[in-house]
């Protein structure tokens, strides 16, 4: 495998919602095993960037290359064409996404939530899918809750199921979108610990977070976004210890309490 | 008032009423089964990302729902043969009721569809499920659970509407009751017993649907 080639390469990504430019040319590289946190005030385009990488949003310009494959669009005769549903679905399965509001399937148990993609997308036989699901639920500390429905689980437990659901698909890259923002304060730590442990196991993570301490602890790199652009990108010591950009310095002052 | 009750004449033909009830139930079950399929298709069409499909669903609902069922039945039984399509009275009625219930069920299912959280659909797409797989494995089960209470309401309504079949001489409960009424002149007795049968059947249907509701996980 080409060691020079990044796992994820985002080039010149632009995204418009109506007349609002949400992303104004974003470039970002991730290598395998990188853990990159994106910080920035709300409306800076962090979440939109993640959703573009997972192809949940269409975008107007730029390329996203995942493991050597340009995803989302193909170019022909100088025009961009969005891939069809089948191809987009295949490409989406290469990335896992964990959402702010968990988004578990309410009609399925914890194990059922993890198994659905294994059965329908990876086409594993039922017993095998169940075994993989149990392994991952054990991994996030929820083996005993495998047959509980989401409504019978706490917010922290639901989010850990969502993490298991994303990781069980063995994605090349996991996207985490403010995964603790909807949790009661006392439940935040259990989810952060889970994320930390999958990072320690070598997963490649792209994280949008408001938890500055966590970003500092877990990340190999931190990216600061401001008004649809990445304005600073560096190791956590630099970003938090010696920010170069004035807006970043101001942002960090405002978030430290 | 010098009307004295004599149920004997009605009991003598009670088997006719029961077979009428069975025929009505049978017709309703077949019609609503087809109508459920129609309603599901048209509900998904009504929220589809294609304008043509949405318009088609809207046209179907507004055409069929704004006609009285009796008119629809008469159209199917008397008007359709003039165009070369001849249906017997059972086929005409099942066809009309299926079409009619499909239009009502479209709205029931559409309400259920709208209630499925967008984030849950995105979660399904994000693990790589196609649009069709998402609809079958995620959207439909959640929608059905949410639609179940009003679904029961519609089912009961459609069963009671099987009485309209009496208009084209389908020997269901209302038709049989009218015959007994005419033969025996026991007006109160006949219609009281027929009403009792309708109520009993509806109570049983409602109980079955409640049981079904309890079997689904709560969310």
TrEMBL record, chain A:
It comes from the Bacteria. GO terms for molecular function: ABC-type amino acid transporter activity; ATP binding; ATP hydrolysis activity. It is a peripheral membrane protein. It is found in: Cell membrane. It holds the Pfam family ABC_tran. InterPro entries: AAA+_ATPase (IPR003593), ABC_ATPase_HisP-typ (IPR030679), ABC_transporter-like_ATP-bd (IPR003439), ABC_transporter-like_CS (IPR017871), MetN_ABC_transporter-like (IPR050086), P-loop_NTPase (IPR027417). Keywords: Amino-acid transport, ATP-binding, Cell membrane, Membrane, Nucleotide-binding, Transport. Belongs to the ABC transporter superfamily. Signal peptide: none annotated. This is ATP-binding protein. Residues 8-252 form the ABC transporter domain. The keyword rRNA-binding does not apply. GO terms for cellular component: plasma membrane.
UniProtKB/TrEMBL annotation, chain B:
Pfam families: BPD_transp_1 (PF00528). The chain crosses the membrane at residues 20-45, 57-80, 191-209. Its main location: membrane. Keywords: Amino-acid transport, Cell membrane, Membrane, Transmembrane, Transmembrane helix, Transport. GO terms for molecular function: transmembrane transporter activity. GO terms for biological process: amino acid transport. PROSITE patterns: ABC_TM1. It is a multi-pass membrane protein. It is found in: Cell inner membrane; Cell membrane. GO terms for cellular component: ATP-binding cassette (ABC) transporter complex. InterPro entries: AA_ABC_transptr_permease_3TM, ArtM/GltK/GlnP/TcyL/YhdX-like, MetI-like, MetI-like_sf. Residues 21-209 form the ABC transmembrane type-1 domain. Belongs to the binding-protein-dependent transport system permease family. HisMQ subfamily. Part of the binding-protein-dependent transport system for glutamine; probably responsible for the translocation of the substrate across the membrane. This is Amino acid ABC transporter permease. It comes from Bosea thiooxidans.
